[in-house]
Each structure stands twice: as structure tokens, then as C-alpha cells.
Specification:
By secondary structure, the protein is mainly alpha-helical. It is 47% helix and 5% strand.
Amino acid sequence: MEAKVIGPGPYRATKLWNETIKLFRGGMSLRRHWAHFRYYDCSFTGSEAVDYLHELLRQNYNFGPEVTRYQTLQLLRKFLKAHVIEDIKGRHGTEDFEDNGNLYRFPTLSPLKSFPTRPLMRDSSDLPRLIRWDDYEELPQQENIAPLKSAVMTSDLWNKRHSVAIGDVHECKLIRRKEISSKQVDHIWKSMTAAHLQRVLGLKTLDGVLNLTHVNGKHIVHNVFSVNKTGIVVLENKVEDMPYWVVSAMKCLANWPNGNEAKQPVYPGFERDVLKTVADYFHRLKEPLLTFHLYEVFVNILSLLHEQEVATEALQVSCLLLPPPNRRRLQLLLRLMARVCQNPHLPPLNDTIAPRTLMVQMFSHCVLGSADDMDLDELLATKLVTFMMEHHNTIFQVPTKLRCQVDEHLSHLKRAQIKYAGSDTDFSASPAVCKQISKVECEEQKVIGTQIPLQQLLEGLIADKELPAKDKKKRLKQVCPQEWNMFKKKCY
């Protein structure tokens, strides 16, 4: 039986926990069992529970076929401790669930978890305020500079300068931003990235999913621009990078059999020892690579995995929020995992487990986990890490749409503009002070601005004594056929 995919939202892990329990209780076959010369109705054995729940999880989209029987057994042990199930004598918590013929049953009390108190719903206005042109600074007035001479106004120039003058034109000032600081750039990236994440997740708010006080705009900018040719983050502080011996071990496995840079002697089982060296380093990290603060963000992405493009974009945006050292470690780890799975020349790394399953089981909890050790962490991490490993080449690319939006906004802020009362309009050339005019004067200037250049052109043709009359006639017809009558009167 396949469970419906729970939509994204706060506290998704708790929703999945309750949904899994409901499916297990609703589908588990209960019957009479005999034990110690007695029979027990509505019971099931440990092995029957493992068989049923394992198949249930594998067919459930929220978890998928990567779930192992051992992971299922671990989940049933959590069920027993949480009193989702109990043994046939009513014991739970201190007992350990076994994959054998021991008998268990469901308690009469509801085993579902209550949801944590949810914060008040707020809208997207709680996103970091985006710097706008309202935050302008006036261009300082320059002294001792001769006023500009008035130029002949052509119709094109008139239209360019007065395209907003539909009604009365109010006083205006030429304004310009000072050079945008790096802190302002960081803030803009943070604000626009958070808004983009909210849209791609399909959420009305990020409350309960992401605390924006934990998002560092400087990290985002670093992850976008400080990368090498292969797209991997380059760290400014080498102390934050992985130790050299870990990087060497990863290169050795990733490029097997040509990755042994140190030319160390290769003995039977050498590749397994190298893998253990890498695993020990990642297992000792203080928190998962996706960080505790971003746990809910990445759990929400699980519901999008059936739409590959949407899920990929969500991961692209979310991974920009990572501290650069975490992003670098994650990039290198996922690349290693993918290459190990695809390398036919690499000797078996485990006698019973296939490379793909081994990689996911070995490193998934190093990638995703919660600070409170949620009950479904291991299963959720398995699902997400499998997808990330398969698409590691694309999830670390910067979303094109987001980058274009930020670039356009920064370009807009850098422009010098004319500021009219109640409007924010951009012109490349305008006087520093504009006099208010009426609609009638506006129309008159439009007509004059068109007629004066034509009149000057005609007078120039007439005054040119070296140009034959035949050529004058030809040029006039090309430029302004309607003025031909005027030309004939003045020439003849």
C-alpha cells in the first residue's frame, strides 16, 4: 500500500511519523498465535512485523526501495520504545524488539505524537527587507561649475526626457546611490535567495521551516562566486578545509586504480581500509553536513523528489545556504560516492552489500540529521542522500533564474535616476532641477520640439549655394516630402 505524499510544511518529520504508524496499524495482519501452551488473539510475531513494515516502507514514496531490512528492524525497536507496539505481556520501553517468533500486539491507547506548538503564521513580508530605490541618497551639488548650455531639442530627445509627463510634471532631483557595499550585496542575496526558496517549496511562509537569523548572506555570496573550474567551493581559510590525508584517501577511491598519489603499497583489502579512513572522518563531525538549522528545509524537499526539476532547483537554492566548508565537504563526498558506485574496476568494498547501498548506509546520517534525533532520521536521510548522490552534478549549480534576478536588481540600484514625487523613473540624461509645467505647455513643447529641427533642415538646404537645385529637390523628397511646397516657394 502506497501512502499519499504529505505536502511540504512545518514539522514534516512528525507528520511522517504519525502517517507511518497509521499505515502500519491499519495494514498489519493480526491473528491468533500460540505461545507457552496459550493462545493470543490479535497478535503478530516480530518476523511478521519486519516482513510487512519493510515492504510497506519500500513501496511508500516517502522512503522508497533503498530501505533495508535492518533499518526496518531499527524502526520497530523505536516503535516498541515509543509504545506504538508492546509485547504480548504489555511490556514496552525497556524491552528490545527482535526479528524472531516473539509475540507483539498494538496497545489500545493512541501512539500518535502531538504536534509542537506552531508559531503564528506570517506572510512573506517577514523575509529580509530588500534594498530598494526608496533608500536613495541625493547626488551632492557641485559648486563652481558653469551651467550647461541649452541644446536644440529634437523630437527623440524630447520624448526621452518627458515620457512620464502625461500630467503636470512635479519637481524632481537627480539621485544616485553611493557604491553598494559588500554588506548590502550580502543582504540582497540573502533576501532574494530566501524568497526564491519559499516559492520553489510552494510555501506561504518559511515559519517552522527556516529561521532566517541563521542564514548568512556572506556564505551565499561565497558559494556563488568562490568556486574552481569544476564548480567546487574554494575556501579562503585553509584551516577550515579537510585534512590532507582525508582528501588523499578520497582521491584514491574516486580515481581507483589510478588515484594512489602517495604510491602506497596496495595489499588485499587496502581499498576497504581507505574507505574506513574516509568514513571515520565524516562520522566524527559535530553535526551533519546539511546542518541542524536546515534540517526542516531538506526534509520538506523530500515531497518534491517525484518532480526531478523542481527538487533539483530546491536543492540548488538550499545548498547555497550552507557554510562554505560544509558545502565543499558535501560536494566532494557525493562525488566520491557516485564514482565508487560507477567504478567497475574497484574491488568489492563489502562481501554482502552492493556499493550503492553501502555508500548510502555509510554516509547518509553524516549528511542529514536533526539535533533532537528524530525517529525517522535514518530513513529520511537514506531517501534524500540517494537522490543527491544521483544528481550531484546539478544540485551544486547556481539557479540561473535567481542569479539573473539578483544581477538585475543590483544593476537597477547602481543607475543614476531622476526621482519624481510618487514615481521612480530611470533616465540617462536629465537636468538636475525640473520646472513644473502645465499640460498645454507640455503639448506646445512637443510640437515645437518636432518642428524646429525640420525648419532648421529646410533652411540649411536652401542656404547651401553649392548644392544644385536638382539635388536639393531629391534630398527634400527623401527627408520630408510634405514640406515640398514650402521648398518651392522659397527657392523660386
